[in-house]
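Methods: example folding runs. The two proteins below were folded one after another, and each record is reproduced exactly as written to the output file, sequence line first and structure-token line second.
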Amino acid sequence: MPVDLKADCIADSAGGLTFDLNVPQGTGTTWSAALVLRLRAGADDTGAAEGTDDEVRLPLGPNGPGRLRAVLPSTVALAEGRWHAFADLGDGVDPRRLLPGVNDLRSLVDRRPLAGIGRLGVRIPYATKLGNLALRSWLRGPHAEAGDILVAPEGLTVTGRLYGASPTAGAHAEARARRAGLDPVAVPLTVDGPDFRFTLPFEELAARWRHGSEPWDLWLCPAAEVPPVRIARLLDDVPEKKQVFSYPALSVPAADRELRIGPYYTLDNDLAVRVSGPAGEA
């Protein structure tokens, strides 16, 4: 019976990852041995982006007794999505799923890349529901990193930092409804170099509510010649922010009823706002 293989992961501040596999002593490898990353196909994945592959092979080499090492440099582009990790020991056996070992992700906490970076790559290892090793990857350029979030009666105040672009005159933030037929809500930015701040009035969203629970996605529009940038929180060691970062929903009057409005992170760690009607109202 094959022995379960575990991989310890060490992250560096540039976005690279080192994988150290624990294998039975005496395990031999060939020149073709590799740690294999495969992009998961699913409803929430869009497939490999231009210039990236849906399978990446990282050479495995000895790193002491009972240890093999593979390195994923920050310069290797991984498409956005979830990547499953396998070990191919070059022994003719199909690659086997890796189990997570010990992660050292300290360098990801409050990571601060250079603001002028053209394209930002983020990779965070995690354990799947079945207990296997996987990576959550983002590849964005430009990128608007969400920082402090303040929920107050007058609205939502967001501070953050823009990477890969420079705000110009007329730069603003937008809340865009996922429901068709609604114009975006635009608010001005306060800018200090790459850092930005804006306040989104809740009354603007409440006035546009129609029924049920209506999500609005938050975007940054830095310049006329730069496409809008999704606001997200990526630069830390938490792969799924929605389960960790929780914000209150406040009661906001609208016409003849009270609505509940509050921010949240999506499954892709993008920042959004939910406007909900009274409980039980469709």
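Second run, written to the same file directly after the first:
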Amino acid sequence: MAAGASEERLAHLQAQVRKAARAMGRHGLVHAFGHVSARLNDTEFLVCAARPMGCLDADDQGTVVPVEGPLPQGVLGEVRLHQQIYKVRPDVGGICRILPARVIALSTMRLTPSARHGNGSYFAPHPPLWDDPQLVRDDDKAQAIAALLGGARAIVMRGNGAVVAGSSIEEAAGLSFLLEEAAALELTVRAAGGGQGGTLLSDAEASARAVSTGGIFERLWEFLTHGDPEQSGSDRANIR
């Protein structure tokens, strides 16, 4: 058991991580690759099993990973991204490493979704771009990406998907869906000739719109996990 994490909390997060992982696969935000995690405490987090996320079974246990130190055996190399973000962002409680098609398409033009509507407001004015298509398998590169992310909710890597950070694994999963929705709108506007001439949210509009009140992320979580084999009636109340 992880130090400082009760058996009940660890079991709860194991299930939430599996549900988030399957949700990413169910909604086309990952395929064979990608991973999600949830913070356990100041020094540890739980990452999903190293399998295609949509294929995770109820008995697939995640691995407890130290925020600082070598990755445990069997943990995927890019999980060091999670390490470095948790290290510098105490506000982050969940991370999704995703490969959404529309976000990737935009990134190959060195673009990320602009804040054009409500879904995009959470990433205003737009997510930062890591302009390198290579896998992130060393600590120096992971540290640089965490630094470029700064206080943002997501960072896009050119031709290599995105990393999304939320206050919880449930929020990170919801933000992952919203990021791909923002990318879909961006591509549609640009295909119609809108480009930078289209309407963008002002800083004030984006700040006012990017709220978590009113059950926004609770409803997103219910939508994303609908039909999951481990879904329970208490899921909405358990978002934290």
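Comment on the second run: The chain has one domain: 7-238.
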